[in-house]
Fold each of these.
Amino acid sequence: MSETNGKLVRVAGVSKFFRRGSEEIHVLEGLDLEVPKGDFLALMGPSGSGKSTLLNLIGGLDRPNKGEVIVNGERIDRLPQRKLAAWRARHVGLVFQFYNLLPVLSAARNVELPLLLTHLSKADRKKHVETALEVVGLSHRMRHLPGELSGGEQQRVGIARGIVTDPTLILCDEPTGDLDRKSGDEILDLLQALNRQHGKTIIMVTHDPHAASRASRRLYLDKGQLSTEPVQ
Amino acid sequence: MKFAGLVWANLKRKKIRTLLTLLSILVAFVLFGYLSAITRALAQGVDVAGADRLVVRHKVSLIMPLPESYEAQMEQLPGVAEAVHATWFGGIYQEPSNFFPQFPVKPEEYLAMYPEFLVSAEAKARWLETRTGAIVGRTTAERFGWEVGDRVPIQATIFTHDGGQTTWDFDIVGIYDGAERGTDTTAFLFRWDFFDEARDWGRGQVGWYVARVEDPREAADVAKRIDAQFANSPAETKAETEGAFVQGFAEQVGNIGAIMVAILAAVFFTILLVAANTMAYAVRERTGELAVLKAVGFTDGQVLGLVLAEALALACLGGFLGLGLGWILISLGDPTNGALPIFYFPPRDIVLGVVLVLALGLAAGIFPALQAGRLRIADALRRL
């Protein structure tokens, strides 16, 4: 365990670059970030500013080239692959822009996916799935395939999948980016409720100021650096 | 088991594609069954040939006759326990495509030489009482619906009788079974004395001899002794073990057999490649979904296992159905109506088929599975 000074997420001196042929593209440069427990943080910035890259590092989907990422007291950037997968299953709920549901599975079975990695019995998994779908208001559509649901409903299923394991942290990458304003607002209401009523810590990447306004805190990312004000 | 639903759901993703892949695997393994049965049929009898039996034929060719008097001379030679003769009759029942072998033989001696031909004592007694009597193998009897007591006319193609008549009438006095699975039960055996007296030409001539040696370890020496006995005579002999004789006989059609086996094997292999490619493609198009599984916590090994399980499930479903269907079809009998008298799906090849099914599943699944296992989540999600 590393010292986190009471913060749920601590990103310190993180750099990340990608190679394109012989060229190195630096996305993040010595970036620092702290997210307290119960926070609802909106990460904003122009396309290619590194928002999703930062989210991936915090969620253990990728590793930094330099620096450290500590979540809930655990330094995840040094965890071996297998342990990192187990850590993700236990601590992180992911919500994607395009929902990323498995089209061959019903809503309930999509939500059940992360639970397959636990030791829960089939009956217990069913209970957890019903609860998660109830929270997102979709218990009446649990047997429907994703293709039979609207975009907003699919994103609710995505959120139910993200919260079904009761994770420490919910990471959302443009959760309203593929939705109309009304459906987007419903999703933001839901995220706000999860934050305020259930105390969930949420980090949301968005470039939509309207979506960002629903968060309790906003940070702007540009040229690999974070600031509290948008860069002009 | 909790992941089985996930594997099954993926197989149902594109039902037509899965069905077509399944069918191609099924056809490949039905073909494999036929390939095995034909290969075994072409080498018929080699495995069940008696180790203590020698076949003695004319040195020039099997179709050249030998004198009947050789039998007694052969039995005088050291190491020879007994000798019997047989002759190719080459008759036709109703139409030429109804092929089965017919031999005039001495009943008691011949049955003693071939204990694997199981005949009841009553049938044997009836045969000895009836000059026109014939014993027929179970396969041929069932093929033509013959029963004991039936009179069967056979059209001669070689031997006429009683002044040019071509039709020989025989009375079925018994049906023999094989002691082993590979025993030929297609032969039609009738009495030598009746045949030799009635035929218009070639009296006192036989087709070949079968000699039993006292010690199978000395078979080669006894064969040399027999050939030496008849050396420099008008009908020199070539003696060899029954296994070598059957092998040599099979090799006469060997080229056709080898070509057929090669063609079937090429078709089988091509179908397998197509099936493997389809399975690999089905996985490649789901890269994004596999990345999502990893993102929610599936390990590299679990994703690899899921992909491999899917390929194995498809291969096993198609392969085992194909082997089963192949076994059923082959059990219905020789599709050539008599050219392949010993025709069955050998158990050893069924086991080989099961191994091939598993190998197909592994070969088709391992590369996409490794690819899925190595998938970098962030890269794959970026591509969505």
Amino acid sequence: MTIFALILSILLAIIALAIGYAQAGVDNYSLWFLLLAAVWLIAHFRKWYWFSSIALLITIIAAAFGVWNGFPTIWMLLGALGGLLGWDLSDFARRLSYAAPMDDTRGMERLHMERVGIVAALGFGLAILSLFVRIHRLAFEVAVGLILLATLGLTRLVIGLRKY
Amino acid sequence: MSRSVLLGLLTYGLLLTGIATVKGEFIALALPLVTYLIIGYLQAPEKIKLEATRHLSVERTSPNSNVDVTVTVTNRGSSLEEILLADVLPAGLTVRSVPAAPVRTNRHLLRLAKGESYTFGYTVSGPRGGYVFDALELKVNDHLAVSSSKVRVEMKGRLFVLPPVTRVRNIAIRPRRTRVYAGTIPARAGGAGTDFFGVRDYQPGDPPSAINWRASARHIDKLYANEFQQERVADVGIVLDGRLRTNEFARGHSLFEYSVQAAASLADALLNQGNRVGLLVYASYLAWTLPGYGKIQRERILHALANAKTGGSQVFSDLEHLPTRLFPPESQIILISPLSEDDFAPLIQLRAEGYEVMVISPNPVKFELSYLPANEIVGLAGRVIRMERALLLQKMGRAGIHVLDWDVVEPFDLFVKRRLGRSPVWLRAIER
């Protein structure tokens, strides 16, 4: 189940990015995206799980590049989301490989799919919403709240980075 | 790099780019990542409190026998969505799959609700050795594996894989000095016993059956009585040579396991005869098991032998540093060693100090030739080394050291029976 979902996610990322780029008239990147998909799948089946992080990085950078150049945002968003799902499922498959044959992997897979699906839907929904919501004036309290949230996030990031 | 750090960096990159370029689309791109991170952190377990117990089906076993390990993990904290657990195996033990049974491993992936327990089992086996089970390692993740904690649950366990003990009976040793308790070792003193020792004057109180009528008939005014050799227990020190240079050969072949097996069988037999036995493993350091009697001493010696390893040390590269003071004076010392040329002088020194020395020497020449290709060069080299060894053993024999050259192809019990066997009392009585 996980492998099937992983392949679908990678295809979603690649096809969305390729369509987005093609719609903007940049066709020559499609081949590179296909190559990325192929390498990602090969890396997964050869247990080079570290490659999924690089693949996520590439898809996010490709989506950001598309956004920067004014390519259709919806496809870029789907591309980034596909990359995120592929990265998550690749790591989940790695964790599943630790399971013993008698472990309830089916149940864990089903639960993970449900939760990742909810996260993806929520993230995508919020992103779509953000594309249509335009805030012309931000209240001071909201701005302060956002700054505090950003500071908190930054602190956690720094704490995380200090471990390395 | 952890997953949360990678996602955090990407998120901040997108947000900062969005702010810098005043493009809301970048923020939109970052939102799925932010959602993923936030939900991951919200689902992180609040309190990790795990307890575990491990049960071994046996605590002492023989080499390569299967031992069932059962581990139970109980979650005393909050619900845990994903736990990767591995029962850390001591080096040397391997997980075995049992034919016609589901594959059982020491690694599992599971969920544990609050208060729930999970029990799993697996089978291990390994070569001779003392193994210490240390801890259960767990990695607890939220369901997106954004936050992850490593937990070690300490639960000690010990498994002794003891060397195989072949039953050896009636080992004939003749130390100069024996102890006061009755045993099976001839004590070189007259008294109650079974073997004829000499004739002495008849004394009141001697049983009539002890009168030597033939000797008495020669003297009109005197009676003579037979005297028998007392049989007592003795002090025996077993020295196991664990030097790398005498035990290890090319291509990973080793004689040490044979030596350990011999030491275990000898210790068992000598303790069964009621003797006081000590063990010294002479390797990279001196591992000394104090002399003692009985079953507890047998366990001590077997545990010491389970942990015995070969070792290369400059100090103990020859037998010069054999600590003779550990052994009672004039006791029996049994050295189990493949021997090298320079072991002659220290062994002569032991003899000079009054010890009765016996050497059981697993034959390294025959052992090495058994796996080397049979060609002219190997054959010639074999002849030379064989002659050198024969000369060394001959010299030792002349010096009063009892040397037993053991071809390890022959089972140790049969070898001992042939070379050291002592007929039982009833048979000796018939022979007389």
